[in-house]
Amino acid sequence: MSALRILVPVKRVIDYAVKPRVNKAQTGVETAGVKHSMNPFDELSVEESVRIREKRSAPGGVQDICVISAGPTKAQDILRTAMAMGADRAIHVEVKEGEDLEPLSVAKLLKAAVEQHKSNLVILGKQSIDDDANQTGQMLAGLLGWPQATQASKVEFGENDSVSVTREVDGGAETLKAKLPMIITTDLRLNEPRYASLPNIMKAKKKPLEKKTLADFGITSERRLKVLKVTEPPPRQGGGKVENVDGLIAKLKELGAL
Amino acid sequence: MPYGYLGLSSTKPRRKIATAHSGSAMSPPLNPELRRQVITIYKELLNLGKDYPQGFDYFRPRLHRAFMANAHLEDAEQIRQGIARAEFVRKEIEALYYLKRYRALRKRYDGA
């Protein structure tokens, strides 16, 4: 029974409570001066890995929980938060502001990180709430040739490195069973992420944080996708009131429904 | 969602203050251990308040007022009750944050 070495990729995104504004050039959303926080789905994956350790649900135990993030220097705050929640160490891959990686580049980066750190379980958020790509986990599984269980709502460990993952599908639940090493992506109902306590925030400041660059992993940020234009959704058209039945019929005829 | 239900919008005395029994020129605190616990929970709540939906500026004075209202407490049992009350509020605020986020995400991604 092998001990788990969990890799948890996290992303710094605009806080879920902030309403994003499209920038003037219509090339993206305004990020300057906007509150950022950890992608909520990534919080679920950090929480899940910490719970696997605390509940001792994995027979081989958890040897290491490593969080990794690629982004501007401020992504380190997010990594500290993850360590305050219970991760052991962090890796920060410096990527300049505005030069975000595409899911495929992220997957390649994670593949290199998995190989470097000998991880045997990667728990990712199913998607980030900024680009909503929902691709990285799947691409990483493909690149590594590992089994994947996406949108997990329950993770259980069994004998001989087997892992059962319950996932939410249309009209019910589906249970997958696979052997380590594997990829899991988290769905909203997997767990309730904790709020980091002050003493743990202080302790997290002393935990190791490695600073790396893309070159350290032999990756270049390649752009395959081009954003043509970003626009606000059209404002919602308000409904109208009709006075009486005749009004309703007239309205329906006008709209061609009758 | 009504955020006032946590008791922060009310001015009723509920919790005790960190500086109980420890005024500058006063005698040393009656119970240093309890005093430490009160300060700890006060700091925890302050830290939580940074994410309060109505803002830290809304949260902090109310928190301070709630603690100040109990500053006069000297009975150890009453102080313990105050700490328990503060712990309860801490848990409620954490649950509030979790639910708020969960509902927002569910609305966005589950189409519910």
Automatic annotation (TrEMBL), chain A:
Swiss-Prot/TrEMBL keywords: Electron transport, Mitochondrion, Transport
Start and end residues of each Electron transfer flavoprotein alpha/beta-subunit N-terminal domain: 26-221
Any one biological process term the GO annotation gives: amino acid catabolic process
InterPro entries found in the cross-reference section: ET-Flavoprotein_bsu_CS (IPR000049), ETF_a/b_N (IPR014730), ETF_b (IPR012255), ETF_beta_N (IPR033948), Rossmann-like_a/b/a_fold (IPR014729)
Subcellular location, record wording: Mitochondrion matrix
Recorded GO CC terms: mitochondrial matrix
Cofactor note: Binds 1 FAD per dimer. Binds 1 AMP per subunit.
PROSITE patterns: ETF_BETA
Cofactor(s) the protein requires to work: FAD; AMP
UniProt cross-references to Pfam families, sorted A to Z: ETF (PF01012)
GO molecular function: electron transfer activity
First-listed, main subcellular location of the protein, grouped into a coarse class: mitochondrion
PANTHER family from the UniProt entry: ELECTRON TRANSFER FLAVOPROTEIN BETA-SUBUNIT (PTHR21294), ELECTRON TRANSFER FLAVOPROTEIN SUBUNIT BETA (PTHR21294:SF8)
Subunit structure: Heterodimer of an alpha and a beta subunit.
Sequence similarity: Belongs to the ETF beta-subunit/FixA family.
Functional description taken from the UniProt entry: The electron transfer flavoprotein serves as a specific electron acceptor for several dehydrogenases, including five acyl-CoA dehydrogenases, glutaryl-CoA and sarcosine dehydrogenase. It transfers the electrons to the main mitochondrial respiratory chain via ETF-ubiquinone oxidoreductase (ETF dehydrogenase).
Protein name, entry field: Probable electron transfer flavoprotein subunit beta
Organism from which the protein derives: Lasiosphaeria miniovina
From TrEMBL, chain B:
A Pfam family recorded for this sequence: Complex1_LYR_2
InterPro entries from the UniProt entry: Complex1_LYR_ETFRF1_LYRM5, ETFRF1
GO biological process: negative regulation of oxidative phosphorylation; respiratory electron transport chain
Coiled coil start-end: none
Domain of life: Eukaryota
GO CC entries: mitochondrion
Family named by the database record: Belongs to the complex I LYR family.
Protein known as: LYR family protein
Species in which this protein is naturally found: Lasiosphaeria miniovina
Upper lineage: Eukaryota, Fungi, Dikarya, Ascomycota, Pezizomycotina
